[in-house]
Amino acid sequence: MKGKAMDYVTHYREHGWVVVPEVFSCARVARVAEIAAQVSQTELAGNPATPMTADASPAGQLAPRKIDWAFPKHAEFRAFVLDGQLQSLISELIGHTAYLVRDQVFLKPARFGSANHGTRDQPAPAGHAP
Question: What is the model's pLDDT at position 129?
Fold first, then answer.
């Protein structure tokens, strides 16, 4: 590994995240985003909203927060995740073959706020169990 690729690996190992530009074309990302919007609207219309699946604006308007378990919900989600270039990049970053164990597509729009339910990346607030 040389140059820019090594910079990505180093950043990932030091910070736990990295942005690698141009893995996918803008058109492909836009297509997946369009499908995510369609799937999420269908799910929101067919299921009662929960704080983990929908968010509300200050005016009470509902918007999808995320799509849980997206992989089986659309062929384009599967193709996106299984793309050879992405698989190769992830394997290079983590140092071994990558396997999808859990997936979510996050959709929370700007200016829609609700309490952060916490993640493993964030410490629990004082007085709260993790």
Answer: 47
Ramachandran area for residue 39 (φ above 0: left; ψ -120 to 50: alpha; else beta): alpha
Domain interval for residue 26: 3-106
Number of domains forming the structure of the chain: 1
Tokens standing for 129? Answer: 């169990």
Residue 32 lies in a domain: yes
pLDDT score for 65: 85
pLDDT the model gives residue 130: 45
Domain for residue 66, yes or no? yes
E strand or H helix at 7: helix 3-15
Residue 121 lies in a domain: no
pLDDT at site 123 = 52
